Every structure is written in C-alpha cells, then in structure tokens.
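User: Can you help me understand a structure? I only have the sequence.
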Amino acid sequence: MNGKRKILFVKYGGFSNVNEIVYEILTREFPSLEVEVIDLFSGVVNTKDLATIFHTIKEYGLDIFNRQINMASRRLVTNYFFNKLRAFILERFAERDYLFTF
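Assistant: Let's start by predicting it. Here is the structure, written out as tokens:
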C-alpha cells in the first residue's frame, strides 16, 4: 500500500449540489482518507453511442415511443450501461488501493 488510503467517488455531472454535499460528507466522515473524484460526465463515458441507444430502446421501447418516458433520462438506467460503467471502473481503477467506491 502506497501513501494514503482512498475512497473513489464516482459521479455523473452535477445537479442540485448533491455531489458537492456527498463529497463534503465523505471528507468529513473519513478525515484520514483521501477522496478521489471521477466525473463520468466529463467525457469519460459516452452515453450517446449506438449500443447505448439500442439497449435503451430495447429495455424501454414502448414507453419511449409512447412518450411516457424520456429516452435521454433513461440512457443511464439500463443493464447495458451499468455493466459498461462497471467494466470501465474496474479496468481503469483496479490497480489502485481504494478502501471503497461510492
């Protein structure tokens, strides 16, 4: 183990200052740990690729076409996207020493 133990805080953009509040809570409650933040919104994960759009339609098809839900808001809430995100995080951060990921 090299240096200070870390928490990986994964966020997607910002809204209503929730991410800032969570960051403040993490740093306050775990003062001996470093909180590393990765924002997936800043180009790390593409939510507009054809595979993501295809899987969104596959999971929410009729609700999207009937305009009961907004496709843009559902791209991040599919099994495909969660699996893609998990694989990305494991690949990019597996070698680092994190106590936990939030």
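Now, to help you interpret it: The radius of gyration is 16 Å. The chain has one domain: 6-101. Let me know which part you'd like to focus on.
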